[in-house]
């Protein structure tokens, strides 16, 4: 009986060791469905919906992991990482020297597209003209070659990441005119412009559709290629940052986002991949 008991104990030890080995990668961290834990991403409201979709796909593969996504704005996300409240900060603008960390990951790029009603004869504006229109130095379409009609400005609300990016990139940090109609989403801007022959607004490339007409800026179309190579001037980065070198679940998630699969998800949602596969060229 003693011999049989000894063999049973040894068998259980061997089985336990085998389970431990197969559940972990060579780095000593859980692999595959064994990835566990919880992380928080906080920051840009523009990046937030993309982070949410990536998190959903990630958690479908790693069922024991949890990725919590919060908004709050780029500045708040950066501060949340530096204070340890969040594991990953999301920004839709370049970081200032004071905000930078050694661990910054460009996950995608986005174009802010200037749109008008499809019937508007204007097809191209200079960046200077865009600034003059949105600050009300130009208030009639005839001043830029269009019909004799007052321009209806449509803008996001103060504090919006898209508005902050637009004012920085297109207005040289001037503020949008107080004359502008305020919409609480870029989708709402698109709807207003689609219904007003004299309106002009700005939206993310990700939601551009046939209901509005995109304008060239300085003769350059807002295409994915032109956004990626920076020839289209009103473009912005989508960035993740961490305060320390990523490990564990944070590293696994960021690696997923930058993988071919993660980049394809971002592409399908309308932003520009920064790590395109050969099939995407």
Brief descriptors of the model:
281 residues; alpha/beta; D-Maltodextrin-Binding Protein, domain 2; 2 domains; ten-stranded mixed beta sheet; two-stranded parallel ribbon; 9 helices; 12 strands; 34% helix; elongated; disordered N terminus
Structure description:
The chain is α/β, with parallel strands linked by helices and 281 residues long. The chain folds into two domains: 117 residues, Periplasmic binding protein-like II (D-Maltodextrin-Binding Protein, domain 2, 3-Layer(aba) Sandwich); 125 residues, Periplasmic binding protein-like II (D-Maltodextrin-Binding Protein, domain 2, 3-Layer(aba) Sandwich). Helices cover 34% and strands 22% of the residues. The protein contains nine helices and twelve strands. The strands form two sheets. Strands 1, 2, 3, 4, 6, 7, 8, 9, 11 and 12 form a ten-stranded mixed beta sheet that branches. Helix 2 links the parallel strand 1 and strand 2. The chain is elongated. The N terminus is likely disordered.
Give a quick rundown of the structure.
This protein is α/β, with parallel strands linked by helices and 281 residues long. The protein has nine helices and twelve strands. Strand 6 (152-156), helix 5 (161-169) and strand 7 (181-183) form a beta-alpha-beta unit.
């Amino acid at each position: 009986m003693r011999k049989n008991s000894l063999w049973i104990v040894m068998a259980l030890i061997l089985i336990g060791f085998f389970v431990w080995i197969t559940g972990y990668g060579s780095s000593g961290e859980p692999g595959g469905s064994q990835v566990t834990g919880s992380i928080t991403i906080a920051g840009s409201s523009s990046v937030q919906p993309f982070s949410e979709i990536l998190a959903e796909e990630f958690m479908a593969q790693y069922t024991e992991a949890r990725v919590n996504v919060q908004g709050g704005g780029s500045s708040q996300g950066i501060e949340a990482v530096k204070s340890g409240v969040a594991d990953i900060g999301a920004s839709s603008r370049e970081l200032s020297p004071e905000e930078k960390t050694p661990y910054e990951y460009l996950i995608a790029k986005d174009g802010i597209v200037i749109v008008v009603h499809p019937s508007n004869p204007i097809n191209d504006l200079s960046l200077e003209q865009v600034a003059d229109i949105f600050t009300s130095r130009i208030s009639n379409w005839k001043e830029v070659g269009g019909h004799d009609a007052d321009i209806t400005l449509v803008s996001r609300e103060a504090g919006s990441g898209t508005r902050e990016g637009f004012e920085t990139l297109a207005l040289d940090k001037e503020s949008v005119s107080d004359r502008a109609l305020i919409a609480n989403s870029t989708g709402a801007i698109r709807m207003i412009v689609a219904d007003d022959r004299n309106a002009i607004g700005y939206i993310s490339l990700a939601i551009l559709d046939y209901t509005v007409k995109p304008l060239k800026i300085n003769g350059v179309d807002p295409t994915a290629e032109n956004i990626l190579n920076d020839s289209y001037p009103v473009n912005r980065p989508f960035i993740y940052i961490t305060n320390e070198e990523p490990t564990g679940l944070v590293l696994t998630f960021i690696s997923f986002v930058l993988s071919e699969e993660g980049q394809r998800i971002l592409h399908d949602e309308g932003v520009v991949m920064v790590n395109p596969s050969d099939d995407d060229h």
